[in-house]
Amino acid sequence: MTFTRTLLATSALVAVGGTAFADGHMASDMTLVSWGGAYQNSQQKAYVEPYIAMNEGVTAVWDESSAEAVAKLRAMNEAGNITWDLVDVVAADAIRLCDEGLAMEINPDEDLADAPDGTKASVDFGDLIVSDCFIPQIVYSTTMGYRTDLVGDTAPTSVCAVFDTEAYPGKRSLEKRPINNMEWALICDGVAKDDVYSVLETAEGQERALAKLDTIKDDVIWWSAGADTPQLLADGEVVMGSTYNGRFFSLIEEQKQPVAMLWDAQVFDLDGWIIPAGLPADRLARVKDFVKFATDTQRLADQSKYISYGPARLSSAPLVGKHADLGIDMAPHMPTDPANATNTFLYNYEFWADYRDDIDAKFQAWLAK
Amino acid sequence: MTSVPDTDAAGRVLSADGTPLKQSLNRALRRQKLRALALIAPLLIFVLVSFVAPILDMLFRSVENQLISDNLPQTVVILEDWDPNSGELPSEAVFEAFAGDLQIAISKKVHTRIGSRLNYEKPGISSLFRKAGRQVKKWDIPNDGPYKEKFADLNKGFADIEVWRTIKTYSGAYTNGYFLNSIDMQKGADGAEARPENEQIYITLFIRTLIMSLAITSLCILLGYPVAWILANLPSRTANLLMILVLLPFWTSLLVRTSAWKVMLQDQGVVNEVLVWIGLVADDSRLALINNQTGTIIAMTHILLPFMILPLYSVMQTISPTYLRAAKSLGATDWTAFWRVYFPQSIPGIGAGSILVFILSIGYYITPELVGGTKGVFISNRIAFHILSSLNWGLAAALGTILLVVVMALYWAYDKIVGIDNVKLG
């Protein structure tokens, strides 16, 4: 097997040798990896276009592979041929990549720009730097939305409406994975928010959450793509369902569907960059230069002109303006807006890094039953 | 005049130069074979390097477990003497060796990988190793012991016998743990044991995958046979036109076709709306056609149908219509003529189509993921999850190996029952 590896590594060397040292000590090409769609577009507009305008001759190519980034990075690493320069991943994946030694550790105060008032990056990003390798960009949340015309006279106000098939009959859509669903199930089964993870740590707690989900199992359509719930809501297939808040924004504000959001117990999650481990010096220099620019206070605030995700820097929040096309104020659509964030739930990264595989096995076995 | 004798003392036939005929014939044949081999060598080497080797490499991961023995070498050796069933933690010597091994692992930045590996077996170890990494690298070994207490102070997880049992169980360079896991078993205190019932999933999925793939293959035969027959018996101009209709879905993206089925089959979808409109189905009891096994079978039958029609069509084209005419002129009814004369000649096409469709459907995962709901997903969905998401490639490799062996066993059974010579693509 060493043979294949050597073979792949040799071809990698040839490929790298071809592009190295084109622009002094910085490479002139970057391959950025993201999720495609509206989100990648917002990054193109807010980060890449201004960067290229400032640095002539630099080109950036997108690879829409974030969903498979963890596996692909590992394969590239084993083959000794890293073709990506910067990868957009959710925080949980960043932790896994960091643990596997596939992402480079960064020093926030050195590698990231200070806030305009001189606050160090490590303070400005604060707790959102959940891994030594993770460079946060946005805060998004997974939350509930419902069809305003299908829920009767009393619109739901709590996330527990999902479990209330008496008051809100009809199908609901939930993500086909344990994360978020297990937490909501426990909260609606009477567990205090602060105790959720200590309950979920035990086998009994996991049984309890699954038992709660079992009460609505026949009424749930399980989704695996973020676009599923918006489609199901628009077609009237479900009365309510969970997805990312940005998807709801485009469903409600851009497509004008009769849907409203339930910010209650929204689960915050983070998305950001990682730099793959083992980049050659010239490419690393280029990507560090880009990241410093792309995650500064103004750039993160600019991104919210195109998509309703909250900037990960404290100092960016006051700079959030209006949507570039719709012209509406974006601040009220941010998951971090005080009006939306009255009851939020913090996703525990450490917990899920430990228990994800175990609970996922139980969750999938329960689903298959 | 002396001539070369025709036979030697043992009675073997000799050739003109006196060597036994058999030997000389073999030599000539061997030369021919070598030349043939040299001709196909480029392709053979290419297939070996780019196809067989990566697959073997992947399959090898199902037993490979060197990460732990390589990176905790001293600990693993001393831990051999410890009996996990004694109810006591390993000795101080183990902890000291562990501290030393861990420091080296931290400097190589592999301690978190060891944690991730062990976390597949016991949840919690991943963060144990990650957190330990920050502290242990500052220790002065072997001068600031005892390490048993130091580790227990660092994190009570290190004082958990189960953690050490896991390390000991998975300390070998090779493991059968992944294979046990893929058949819903695990390595327990006394060897292999069944997993708790609420974690059993893989055997169910293997059986479901096989049954549903068989159902899809049968449906493809039922639907594809008449279509192929019509295509083969129409004048070629019309047949070519209709062939484009068969091939058209081939050129459409898989995701588009699957999404189209969603629009067709959902509760408020086209099929249900029509059925309600003509009054066949009541408005409040619409048919559940998607997000279940029905959805997977319908969508996959549609997607795989061309793989059945094409081999059937090309085989049927070679069946001369004179056979049918002869049968009828000898007094056979339409049915007898078809069943006794035409059908047996089309079996090679059915065989080829069935093998194609069955093997393709066993490995499908995108369509079941999108339209299969909870009960319509295949084993490949779990394999994809372990490759893409959990990064448990060892388990994915074990599941893949089992799937490969099952497919080969079925292929062998097919060869024994029907005969693989009886498969034709045209």
TrEMBL record, chain A:
Top-level taxonomic group: Bacteria
Protein name: Bacterial extracellular solute-binding protein
Keywords, alphabetical: Signal
Naturally occurring in which organism (per UniProt): Planktotalea frisia
Signal peptide extent: 1-22
Pfam families, per the entry: SBP_bac_8 (PF13416)
Keyword Signal: yes
SUPFAM superfamilies for the chain: Periplasmic binding protein-like II
From TrEMBL, chain B:
Superkingdom, taxonomy of origin: Bacteria
Membrane topology qualifier: Multi-pass membrane protein
Transmembrane residue ranges: 36-56, 205-232, 238-256, 296-316, 347-366, 387-414
A Pfam family it matches: BPD_transp_1
Intracellular or extracellular location(s): Cell membrane
One term under GO cellular component: plasma membrane
PROSITE patterns: ABC_TM1
The keyword Metal-binding is assigned to this record: no
Domain ABC transmembrane type-1: 206-414
GO-annotated biological processes: transmembrane transport
Primary site of residence: membrane
Keywords: Cell membrane, Membrane, Transmembrane, Transmembrane helix, Transport
Family per record: Belongs to the binding-protein-dependent transport system permease family. CysTW subfamily.
Name this protein carries in UniProt: Spermidine/putrescine transport system permease protein PotB
Source organism per UniProt: Planktotalea frisia
Name of the gene this protein is made from: potB
